[in-house]
Automatic annotation (TrEMBL), chains A, B:
The keyword Transcription appears for this protein: yes
GO MF term (any one): DNA binding
Keyword annotations of the record: DNA-binding, Transcription, Transcription regulation
Signal peptide limits: none
Source organism of this protein record: Actinokineospora bangkokensis
Full protein name: TetR family transcriptional regulator
PROSITE patterns linked: HTH_TETR_2
Family matches, as InterPro entries: Homeodomain-like_sf (IPR009057), HTH_TetR (IPR001647), Tet_transcr_reg_TetR-rel_C_sf (IPR036271)
Top-rank taxon: Bacteria
Domain HTH tetR-type: residue ranges: 6-66
DNA-binding region(s) from the entry: 29-48
Length: 196, 196
DNA sequence: CCTATCTTGAACTGATCGTTCCAAGATGTG
DNA sequence: CACATCTTGGAACGATCAGTTCAAGATAGG
């Protein structure tokens, strides 16, 4: 209980997460992490344990933070699945449009990097993507969609959500991103039995 | 005209392309490229000029090779847009299912890496993604779809195609990938005026 | 055969990689 | 104050990074 930390651990995690998010795991060096967090190597290693351990913390942080937002958006899926899916995509569109945050998506980037990640890091990235699919599957199964349609549509929606990361990095405008999800939302509206 | 090359340039390009495709630009070292191509540094540098120059060659090679397949698939868009879009996605699904090739997609991976790529390499990655969008836009505008719907759907289809790269790396099964494109194809079939 | 030209292998450059280590400073307890 | 514990700055580690250099080997034109 002596020698108190001279920095805010949460703020450091946010800075590290943002860096991984923007540059990816491979293109982020420990020096980069020290620079963006303001820590030196000793503090970074003693607090977080190394690059991969810190990356895992950041991945979990990212998955938890936005997972909660996605869950909140989908909470009305049973009563109004169309509004729920619309709100789901809006979480991503808002995040991409936020100038204080990177575009892209840490989970999408990590998923594509799986072949060059450590086994445990790769497993966690896969889990994060799986959580997203599970979230959508549960929400849509609670709607009046037939089970098979619900599962298919959940896979589709999860994929379209990841595609926004790629397209935003590729220079797609907010209007173009809206068009991408618009087709998906339209498809759901036609698939819902309430649609006459 | 003296001292003939001891290797096949096309084979070396294929090997390098496959490596970049699987591991991405940042996680691929020149040593890796030497190993997979069988070349030593001298031959690699004198023939291709360096890592970034070789990466550009591989990006162009990838974009051309699969661009032609996408164009062929979309060639019947005016007469049968539904079959054209189906064939378009089938190009990607077949490529992912091919055990001799990596899953994922070099263009998607490069697009996500744009923030850490050299300016000219980033521009080329963006161009490759733009070519894909242009391809789909032209094909769908030739169909009986209203112009605005054609543009929106083109953006959507390009995005869904990129999403397959992310989802395949994340462990999605071929059936799940088919479900993803199935929703999109179904949406197009409902949007076409021929649909009764 | 001779020589100019090209290719190839391997050693080498300085920079950067992730990680470890240690001494100096700061803090809480006795 | 004294001592044990923790944090911090910075140097240092061997490994690997992208890229260069050079001499030896191979080939074509004369």
């Amino acid at each position: 209980m002596a020698g108190r930390k001279q920095f805010d651990v949460d703020a450091a995690l946010d800075a590290a997460m943002t860096r991984f998010w923007r540059a990816g795991h491979a293109a982020t060096s420990v020096d980069d992490l020290c620079r963006v967090t303001g820590l030196n190597r000793s503090s970074l290693y003693s607090t977080f344990g190394g690059k991969d351990a810190l990356f895992l913390r950041c991945l979990d942080r990212y998955a938890t933070r936005y997972g909660e937002k996605y869950d909140a958006a989908l909470s009305c899926a049973a009563s109004d699945p169309l509004a729920a899916v619309r709100a789901f995509f809006q979480v991503t569109l808002d995040r991409i449009a936020d100038p204080a945050l990177p575009d892209g998506c840490l989970i999408a980037q990590s998923a594509l990097a799986i072949p060059v990640l450590t086994e445990d890091v790769a497993a966690r990235a896969k889990d994060a993507l799986g959580a997203q699919r599970k979230r959508l599957r549960a929400a849509l199964k609670a709607s009046r969609l037939a089970d098979q349609h619900a599962e298919d549509f959940a896979e589709h929606a999860a994929a379209v959500n990841q595609s926004l990361a790629v397209m935003s990095r590729g220079g797609a405008s907010p209007a173009q991103l809206r068009a991408i999800v618009g087709v998906t939302v339209e498809a759901l509206s036609h698939a819902l039995p309430t649609h006459t």
